[in-house]
């Protein structure tokens, strides 16, 4: 890997295009390096993972709305597929619909470093572009290796959330780069597409603050849609604002740490394999990633507690990110509101820890149900939980050593009789260094579990056969899953829109 120093440059400075971060990313995307076998296998795992969470979310209202928007944009020639239904649709709208399905339940893969991300968000738009372009499985593998690589590398070196910029600002460029690889575009075209994608997908973090709406699921899907459109414009000869990151009125100068700050972005050297996907990790539980390890910790501790009503207080000692984003450091009263949206409860470690402690389990639907959130004893316990930042957990969160990097917490439970129970966990059980790491078997089991009652067994097996033969797959539409009409009929009615 090569570490690239990135900073603001005045317009009057001599700053050749070849030095722009967007150009260096475009060079990585255009590099025809072979994809290593481990990366190939993990790409297949993550396509299975995305299909699993899409099955679990397909009948929910936001996913239904996005699907019906896509249905308004059919194409007669070869197009992209929309999860759950037959037909061909415009790639950018298929990307939106499938992206919402993937993100709605906050249940797919994650990467955390200086910034955080869900790199699996690259799959819906890159796959949609590949289907519309008539690309092969081998093309898709190369493209997704790039998408993951670029997003992970940006996340490693450039923090967005400290400036209240949403993390999808790294997704637009990574999708554009991935599609550039997919279509074998030249460096200059990919460069322009990356600039346009970043320019049109930079938004504030209010989508993940306070009363969180379903836009949380639409935001990354919208970024993928914008990236497809950016590539299309760049292919037609249109340019982008540049230098997009380093310009004196650019992203770094005005949206991030300012004109005097330097970022270090690691990128593969020419001919270096793209392996970043191997540093990412999926979720066993449908919740914010920083909740994964605490859920496992709560299940373990809950099994040792006979009566949770005897708890006086619970303090979770954890990282800066966990404390300020999903903990009491956020100062969001909504995180203690039983009437809060599912998306808000998903970002409340206090609620999540209380339910997991009581139930010694976590479920993507029942754990968030209004009935569950309104249980009086849960509300009482919920309000007894607080978080504090612990410098050591913050340090481990940002560690570059994968065996030391941690996203956990230490729980201190004080009982009414004065006794104290303490335990801690560094990584989730499903993490590569956890108690039960996910491999192909676990990804398939997650898919079959979430697909039960939604996707017919025959369709499940057809999909699993197709995806596991991805390197030799000629028709990428085989990766789409269709649902029986009677299943789709269970989707909620939604008002008509404009499109």
Automatic annotation (TrEMBL):
It catalyses: citrate = D-threo-isocitrate; (2S,3S)-2-methylcitrate = 2-methyl-cis-aconitate + H2O. Residues 285-470 form the MmgE/PrpD C-terminal domain. It is an enzyme of class 4 (lyase). Pfam families: MmgE_PrpD_C, MmgE_PrpD_N. Pathway: Organic acid metabolism; propanoate degradation; Carbohydrate metabolism; tricarboxylic acid cycle; isocitrate from oxaloacetate: step 1/2. One of its GO terms (molecular function) is aconitate hydratase activity. Monomer. This is Aconitate hydratase. It comes from Corynebacterium callunae DSM 20147. The lineage of its organism: Bacteria, Bacillati, Actinomycetota, Actinomycetes, Mycobacteriales.
């Amino acid at each position: 890997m090569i570490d690239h120093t990135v900073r603001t440059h005045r317009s009057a400075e001599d700053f050749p295009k070849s030095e722009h971060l967007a150009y260096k990313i475009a060079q990585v995307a255009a590099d025809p390096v072979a994809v290593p076998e481990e990366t190939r296998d993990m790409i297949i795992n993550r396509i299975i993972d995305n299909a699993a969470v899409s099955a679990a979310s397909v009948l929910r209202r936001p996913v239904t709305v996005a699907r019906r928007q896509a249905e308004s944009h059919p194409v007669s020639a070869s197009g992209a597929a929309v999860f759950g239904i037959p037909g061909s649709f415009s790639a950018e709208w298929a990307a939106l619909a499938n992206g919402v399905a993937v993100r709605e339940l906050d249940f797919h893969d994650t990467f955390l470093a200086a910034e955080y991300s869900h790199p699996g968000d690259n799959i819906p738009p890159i796959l949609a572009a590949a289907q519309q372009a008539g690309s092969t499985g081998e093309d898709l593998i190369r493209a997704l290796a790039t998408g993951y690589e670029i997003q992970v590398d940006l996340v490693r070196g450039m923090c967005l959330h400290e400036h209240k910029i949403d993390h999808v600002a790294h997704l637009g460029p990574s999708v554009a780069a991935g599609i550039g690889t997919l279509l074998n575009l030249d460096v200059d075209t990919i460069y322009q597409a990356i600039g346009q994608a970043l320019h049109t997908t930079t938004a504030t973090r209010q989508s993940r603050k306070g009363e969180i709406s379903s836009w949380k699921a639409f935001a990354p899907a919208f970024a993928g849609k914008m990236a497809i459109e950016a590539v299309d414009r760049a292919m037609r000869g249109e340019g982008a604002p540049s230098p997009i990151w380093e310009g004196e009125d650019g992203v770094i100068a005005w949206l991030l740490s300012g004109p005097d700050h330097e970022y270090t972005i690691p990128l593969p050297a020419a001919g270096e394999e793209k392996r970043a996907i191997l540093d990412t990790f999926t979720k066993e539980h449908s919740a914010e990633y920083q909740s994964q390890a605490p859920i496992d910790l709560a299940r373990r501790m809950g099994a040792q507690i006979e009566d949770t009503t005897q708890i006086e207080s619970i303090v979770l000692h954890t990282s800066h990110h966990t404390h300020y984003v999903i903990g009491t450091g956020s100062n969001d009263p909504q995180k203690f509101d039983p009437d809060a949206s599912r998306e808000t409860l998903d970002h409340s470690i206090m609620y999540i820890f209380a339910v997991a402690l009581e139930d010694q389990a976590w479920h993507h639907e029942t754990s968030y149900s209004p009935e569950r959130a309104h249980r009086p004893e849960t509300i009482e316990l919920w309000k007894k939980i607080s978080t504090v930042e612990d410098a050591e957990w913050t340090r481990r969160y940002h560690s570059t050593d994968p065996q030391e990097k941690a996203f956990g917490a230490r729980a201190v439970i004080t009982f009414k009789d004065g006794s104290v129970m303490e335990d801690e966990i560094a990584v989730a059980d499903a993490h590569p260094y956890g108690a039960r790491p996910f491999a192909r078997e676990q990804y398939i089991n997650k898919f079959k579990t979430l697909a039960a009652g939604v996707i017919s067994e025959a369709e499940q097996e057809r999909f699993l056969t197709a995806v596991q033969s991805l390197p030799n797959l000629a028709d990428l539409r085989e990766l789409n899953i269709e649902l029986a009409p009677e299943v789709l009929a269970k989707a909620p009615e939604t008002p008509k829109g404009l499109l």
